[in-house]
């Protein structure tokens, strides 16, 4: 009996049902052998996620490893090289599991795991309402601009289109396929690739990808909807979102090939509105490679919808609402370090009821809701979503989800790269942080909330900021004071260490501070009070009676005196700055005519944001302090 138990133990160790993910051992159990394909075995992990395993494994070897020797020793065959990742074939499923685990345990590989066949979930929700049939399609463009149906849910794109509509930027969509015969796409030259068949056949009856393509690049032809960046070039990469036991399933290696194709096509911006809650090391490797090396080292911009399970990193996410947890948010592709993680807000500018949230969330856009779903392109005719649509024209339909907030934000970055192609991935992220609108009654700590990330994207502010940065490149300005950069203008002020500043805090108390970089805007104090008396020694100012009604900020200052060094200006957000108006001010403003012009009225400035130094190789101030140069 003892020898029999030892034999069983040996068998269990030799063919252990586990693999390594992110350095951790993941146990799996084979299930339902009667349904197992002869080439694929079905397993479930500890979270009840179902995966398929064939005979292939994905490996990244450590440096100075004799790969040919290892292949012989482990009885593995090289099938294909996928960038820095090796696709190897084992003798069986058990051999694939055993070999991948042993490569890690023998300290030979950085990562190694089976080439999983797994379910990839799109991030669209089923609709539960009908729309009126007698409305023009552009009335439903409330994600772009104010319409007769809905206002203030949009990304404010109309003025951004005065700068660009996405020209000379290559957009990628990695999704379920596209209807190239649709009237919004038939006149475009679109590159396509099918990761399953490795051909250029990208058609599908699943409308998810076609809907996203409409949101991003639908033609400006007056026929239906229009994309956020209608003049961008499009590369569509097709993947299969449905779990399958056949050879056409969504293997990790197929997803990797899609990302490699994106790199080969020199895509600038890539949208991925899907996830598994069970990401694999090999996929993380290739995504982060694109983020670092794409766009000639400036970084490919990769956007993911965060998901529709109304969950955060503290619990299981049930994307299908079937009562079974699909996995943890921190294990999803949307939370890979370096991607843009996008959530949805509703038409009331609060977190959409379905949108995932938490520390991984970066930005939000309107992803639609059951009251006001988004409208975009459908598979032509009776296929796709149109069987559930209320439109007479079945080429268009409605949908809801973070699947659709993500491509909207991605397209705004396309407009930004169109006006300033030198921007890096980090530059785009920083500009979004600076220009996003803080919506909802949420707590924003260091500019970020758990519910909506850094806030709601504003396309016009982001695109104008990107253009303004380009206009500063290699220019020199005559200055006498310290330089800051805001979302619309460059402005100058004396060294902030010498400022005497009073700030109205969240506790509705006034306290002195010395950080001019925190200011949000200027409006003249003389417009708010009937007098602003400056003392003879110019070291204090007294404000008179309030001229503005029902303003608690103004009321709190009425008939009070403050010690100052400079003349006094009040901001709309409650910060007050003093400045002697008799001093000569050398200020440059970026005007609506897209030129830098000197002016002498600091009260016209709207807001303080980040230092210009983040966006340039260097910002040099001359020794005499009279000049500033951007390199």
Within the CATH hierarchy, at the fold level, what is the topology of the largest domain? Rossmann fold
Shape: globular
Q: Which CATH class of the largest domain applies here?
A: Alpha Beta
Quantity of strands, as a count:
35
The unreliable regions are: 1-16, 128-137, 243-248, 477-525, 564-589, 598-611
Structural class: alpha+beta
Q: What do you see in this structure?
A:
The chain has 3 domains: 2-118, no CATH class; 139-466, Rossmann fold (3-Layer(aba) Sandwich), CATH 3.40.50; 473-630, no CATH class. It is built from 10 helices and 35 strands. By secondary structure, it is an alpha+beta fold. Strands 1, 2, 3, 4, 5, 6 and 7 form a 7-stranded antiparallel β-sheet that branches.
In short:
The protein is α+β, with helices and mostly antiparallel strands. Helices cover 19% and strands 24% of the residues.
């Amino acid at each position: 009996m003892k020898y029999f138990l030892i034999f069983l133990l040996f068998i269990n160790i030799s063919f252990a049902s586990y693999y390594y993910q992110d350095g951790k051992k993941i146990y799996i159990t084979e299930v339902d052998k009667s349904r197992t394909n002869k080439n694929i075995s079905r397993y479930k992990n500890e979270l009840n996620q179902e995966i398929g395993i064939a005979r292939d494994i994905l490996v990244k070897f450590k440096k100075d490893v004799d790969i040919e020797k290892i292949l012989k020793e482990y009885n593995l065959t090289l099938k294909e090289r996928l960038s820095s990742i090796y696709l190897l074939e084992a003798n069986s499923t058990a051999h694939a599991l055993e070999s991948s685990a042993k490569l890690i345990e023998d300290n030979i590989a950085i990562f190694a795991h089976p080439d999983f066949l797994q379910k990839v979930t799109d991030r669209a929700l089923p609709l539960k309402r009908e729309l009126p049939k007698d409305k023009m399609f552009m009335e439903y463009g409330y994600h772009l601009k104010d319409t007769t149906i809905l206002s203030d849910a949009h990304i404010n794109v109309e003025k951004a289109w005065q700068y660009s509509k996405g020209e000379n930027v290559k957009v990628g969509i990695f999704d379920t396929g596209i209807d190239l015969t649709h009237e919004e796409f038939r006149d475009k030259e679109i590159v396509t690739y099918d990761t399953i068949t490795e051909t250029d056949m990208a058609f599908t009856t699943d409308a998810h990808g076609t809907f996203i393509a409409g949101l991003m690049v639908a033609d400006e032809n007056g026929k239906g909807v229009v994309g956020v960046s209608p003049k961008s070039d499009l590369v569509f990469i097709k993947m299969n979102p449905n779990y399958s036991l056949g050879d056409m399933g969504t293997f990790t290696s197929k997803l990797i090939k899609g990302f490699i194709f994106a790199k080969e096509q020199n895509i600038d911006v890539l949208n991925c509105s899907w996830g598994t809650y069970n990401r694999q090391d090999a996929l993380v490797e290739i995504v982060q490679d694109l983020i670092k090396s794409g766009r000639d080292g400036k970084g490919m911009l990769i956007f993911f919808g965060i998901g529709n399970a109304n969950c955060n990193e503290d619990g299981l996410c049930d994307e299908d609402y079937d009562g079974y947890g699909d996995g943890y948010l921190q294990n999803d592709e949307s939370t890979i370090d370096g991607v843009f993680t996008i959530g949805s807000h509703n038409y009331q500018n609060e977190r959409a009821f379905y949108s995932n949230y938490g520390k991984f969330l970066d930005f939000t856009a309107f992803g639609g809701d059951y009251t006001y779903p988004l409208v975009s392109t459908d598979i032509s005719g009776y296929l796709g979503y149109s069987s559930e649509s209320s439109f007479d024209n079945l080429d268009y339909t409605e949908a809801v989800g973070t699947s659709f907030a993500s491509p909207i934000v991605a397209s705004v970055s396309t407009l930004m790269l169109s006006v300033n192609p030198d921007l890096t991935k980090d530059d785009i992220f920083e500009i979004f942080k600076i220009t996003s609108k803080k919506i909802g009654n949420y707590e924003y700590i260091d500019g970020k909330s758990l519910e909506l990330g850094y806030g709601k994207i504003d396309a016009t502010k982001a695109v104008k900021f990107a253009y303004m940065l380009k206009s500063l490149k290699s220019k020199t300005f005559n200055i006498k004071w310290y330089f800051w950069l805001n979302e619309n203008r460059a402005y100058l002020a004396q060294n902030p260490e010498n400022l005497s500043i009073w700030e109205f805090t969240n506790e509705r108390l006034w306290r002195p501070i010395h950080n001019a970089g925190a200011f949000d805007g200027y409006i003249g104090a003389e417009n708010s009070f009937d007098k602003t008396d400056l003392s003879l020694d110019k070291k204090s100012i007294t404000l008179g009676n309030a001229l503005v009604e029902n303003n608690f900020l103004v009321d709190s200052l009425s008939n009070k005196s403050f010690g100052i060094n400079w003349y006094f200006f009040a901001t709309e957000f409650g910060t007050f700055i003093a400045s002697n108006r008799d001093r000569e001010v050398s200020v440059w403003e970026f005007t609506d005519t897209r030129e830098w012009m000197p002016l002498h009225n600091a009260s016209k400035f709207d807001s303080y944001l980040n230092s210009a130094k983040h966006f340039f190789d260097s910002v040099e101030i001359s020794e005499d302090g009279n000049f500033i140069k951007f390199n």
